[in-house]
Amino acid sequence: MRRITHLFLCVIAGLLLGPVPASAMPEGTTLVLPFRTVGTSDTTAVVTRDLLAGELETLGLSVVSMRSHRGDTPSGEKGCDEVDCALSLASEHQAAQVVFGSLSRLGDKFVVRVRAVRAGEAKPFYSDQIPAEMEEDLDVVMRRIAEGIAGGRTDSDRATINSVTDVEANAARRRKGRSGIGLRTGFLFPVGDSYGGTDRLTNLRLAYKFEGHDFFIESTALLGFAWGGGAFEWTPFDVFAARIFGVGDVSGYFGGGLGMRVVSVESDPVYVPDEWGGYNDTEIQSAATLAAEVGGGLIAFRTYGYQVIVDLRYQHVLENFNKIDRKGAHGFILSFGTSH
Questions:
Q1: CA–CA separation, 228 vs 225, rounded Å?
Q2: Is the dihedral of CA 193, 195, 197, 202 positive or negative?
Q3: Are 262 and 222 spatial neighbours (Cβ–Cβ below 8 Å)?
């Protein structure tokens, strides 16, 4: 059953990738040298080399038998993993190309570094380094390398369903960072008589912040408000990214952002006379639009779990409110707050 499954997978892989073009297949014989070992047993190195040679033969290449050569071939820690040495051995074996490299061990992990060079050429046509999580994964790695060499590719960046390694199947690693939620409060100071001419708006928002080594990304979802003087602003969602300068407990930052705003602006009262003596009337215009921000500030207590932030940004709402005064909505936001 296992052989049938393997055959089925090979057939599917062949249909997906197509046959290897004749021009891509190396001509002549291929010499596969013993791997130079670093922290790896000689037995593992011999088996790994035989696996690679067998996979190359399966893919149609003619591989030189090491047993037919009477001379001493470097192996183990003194194995050949340099171009000049490999080409010299290829000439001795009268091979058209030679495959060589090293097999290193780091704890339970193996790193296979393989190159292939053609006789008469000084630069390898194939070069790659592939990790294996454990010794049992080396057969898949050898199959992956053989596919790359037989396919005439420069490396083994493409895989078939038979040669996907465990390292690729596992979740990718991510750089560590810190994240948390904080409260920001302060004032929005309109410029150019915007926001209907009000002097200032009170600003309050709840922000989620992710911080890396030298940057942070901050966003507000639904819980961002500013109000005052007949003007009201709501933030459904925005994102602000900044570069942090310094690694101390107090560091500065500068960045920019983009978000959505729902803004309502009220005009100045206008006296409207009528038969009962008249009244003061105002007009209100609302708009849902985008807003751009640019600014910076200071982060204190960066090495602690509790931070204090002082922030100054310039915000420009992309709406001119032509029914009110055509002066739009833009200004400076000065706020401070905390982050956990």
A1: 10
A2: negative
A3: no
Residue 311: beta bridge partners? 297, 335
Please, what is the Cα angle at 31 between 30 and 33, to 5 degrees? 150
Phi/psi-derived region of residue 44, left when phi > 0, alpha when psi is between -120 and 50, beta in every other case: alpha
Cα angle 105, 109, 113; round to 5: 60
Name the token pair of 241.
């990214």
* pLDDT value of residue 176: 72
pLDDT per residue over 3-48, tens digit each? 444 444 444 444 444 444 433 434 579 999 999 999 999 899 999 9
* Alpha helix segments (H runs only) across the chain: 2-17, 42-58, 83-93, 138-150, 166-169
Angle between helices 138-150 and 42-58 (to 10 degrees): 40
pLDDT of 17 reads 43
Q: What is the pTM (predicted TM-score) of this model?
A: 0.56
The tokens for 218 are 């901050």
Residue 113 corresponds to which tokens in the numbers above?
């570094």
What sign does the CA torsion over 83, 86, 91, 97 have? negative
In this structure, how many other beta carbons lie within 10 angstroms of the beta carbon of residue 126? 22
**Euclidean distance between CA atoms 82 and 279, whole angstroms:** 94
At 219, list the tokens: 């966003």
φ, ψ of residue 92 to 5 degrees: the values are -65, -35
- Mean pLDDT of the residues in the chain: 86
